[in-house]
Amino acid sequence: MRWIDIILPEPTIHQELDTRLAAAARLAAEIPPLQDQYGLDSVRVIEIMTKAGQELFQGIIAADPEAFSSSRGSETRETPALGQPEHDELVGYHIVASPARVGLPWSWLHNGVGFLFEKHPICCATHGSGLPEGSLHRPWMQRLTRARFLVGEEGGDTLTETIAQLRPDDVGRPEILFVPGHTDRKRRKLIYREAELIEAAIEHGCRGETLLDLDLPLEPVTPSDLVTRGLQYQAIHFAGPTSQPARQSDPFGEFWMNCLIEETTLPDARELEDALGMEGEVLGVDPVTSLLDDIVKRYETAGSVLESVTVGGGGIDRQAFSGIPAPNAPSRSWLLDDGPVNPENMERWGTLPPLIFSNSYKALPELGHRFVRSGASTFIGPVVPLFSRPARIFAGHCYGAMGEGWGAAAAVWKASRTCRQELGVDHPAWLSYGIQGYGQLALQYL
Q1: CA 402 vs CA 173, 267, 280, 394, 415: distances in Å
Q2: To which H or E segment does residue 286 belong?
Q3: Which value, to the nearest 10 degrees, does the dihedral of the CA atoms of residues 249, 251, 257, 260 take?
Q4: The pTM is what?
Q5: Which pLDDT tens digit goes with each residue over 74-133?
Q6: 263: closest CA among 285, 290, 288, 298?
Q7: Angle at 72 between CA 69 and CA 73, to 5 degrees
Q8: Number of neighbours of residue 132 by Cβ within 10 angstroms
Q9: In sequence order, which residues have a C-beta less than 8 Å from that of residue 2 and are 6 or more positions away?
Q10: Cα dihedral angle (252, 254, 257, 260), rounded to 10 degrees?
């Protein structure tokens, strides 16, 4: 696929751009109160997204009338071909913006006729789509650069023909750590259904080869454990409540294991979700039940839980979408059962892997830039609150695309289109996700 870079002026340089982006941020901020009144999946959400997207589009056009021209070539970059026309023929827009603007909902770009996201992956970062010049400090960047020059035995250069050179037999597959976030015990069962969908999605990869292994810990993941083990993984998937922020006060019991056992006696998932005001779904095997025997054995011999790490708000507190410091506002973090963990704390230990997928409440505008600034290459997460069921469905489709070799931004685009087909054009789930960082990161390079 081909990337077109759109470089925005810094704040205060272009008055109309500043005005339009501020208007888009105000519209986006209206969505959570509107959802409280009409429901998370109300069609009114799409109406606000459309208006905000038009403000974003008009602001960019005012600053650069040729920004979305497909004929511009000096600021475009090609990614290695996969041999899949749907992916290779894509043209994506990479927005280069200041830290205060990367959290805006760029996937809502709307030209007055339709969302650009219907046809084009959209990514945003404080840097361009190309890899940094000079020393490539992350191994995946070196492999991506090398992939451009690989040729298969039959003379082809697609992923299916060169995957053996990217993944020699003696090289282990990369791993993604699944981290369940803190929530009340009734919702814990739903979080593990997300792991089930991800594992099924990545099972079949390129030429039958799985590109990523899922590590679902059989013991609780504590903040200190996450910090000290981060370098062992090439990706982290954090699964938490997506409809509302997690609260430390949510009851979860004294022992993680006791609560997990209790969950096996909870009602059917559909009854549970209906009772909690969330959408229902029908799934097969309950991964919690299948893991109980191993978990019981390991938990009984594990001893005490690792010491918790309490992390203060080390980063800049930012209002959602605007990136402007909010006075006296707490800095949101990943909330685990033993306490919070912030990306800044993981950065100090050098433990942030290249890919972060945070399926949690408004993760992209509130956590995206902080994770990228702390060392992650690519961050994927929700832009607005949404039900847990479409959040899990989106994650499954996104990993399914990446499992076929798609770049991260293209995978977000494909997952969004699939969600639109399954849930309907008026359901906001397909516009509820975004990506920051390097959109061309792919699993075969990790």
Answers
A1: 14, 33, 26, 12, 10
A2: none
A3: -130
A4: 0.84
A5: 566 789 999 999 999 999 999 999 999 999 999 999 999 999 999 999 999 999 999 987
A6: 288
A7: 150
A8: 12
A9: 76, 77, 78, 79, 90, 91, 92
A10: -20
What does the H/E/C string look like for 163-182? HHHHCCCCCCCCEEEEEECC
Measured distance CA(408)–CA(355) in Å, rounded: 9
pLDDT in tens, 431-444: 999 999 999 999 99
- What are the residues whose beta carbons fall under 8 Å from the beta carbon of 282, sequence distance 6 or more? 270
Q: What's the gap between Cα 108 and its chain centre?
A: 16
Mean local confidence (pLDDT), 307-322: 35
pLDDT confidence tier of residue 73, bands split at 50, 70 and 90: low
Sheet of strand 378-382, all strands in order from the earlier edge strand to the far edge: 76-78, 2-7, 91-96, 122-125, 433-437, 378-382, 355-359, 235-239, 175-180, 213-215
Burial 371-382 (b: 16+ CB within 10 A, else e): bbbbbbbbbbbb
Q: How many CB atoms lie within 10 A of CB 282?
A: 7
Q: How many CB atoms lie within 10 A of CB 65?
A: 9
The tokens for 272 are 């549970």
Residue given tokens 């997506």 in the structure block: 242
- The vertex-132 CA angle with 130 and 135, nearest 5°, equals 140
* φ, ψ for residue 55, nearest 5 deg: -65, -45
Which residue's structure tokens are 């009984």?
300
Q: What whole-number distance in Å separates Cα of residue 47 and Cα of residue 115?
A: 12
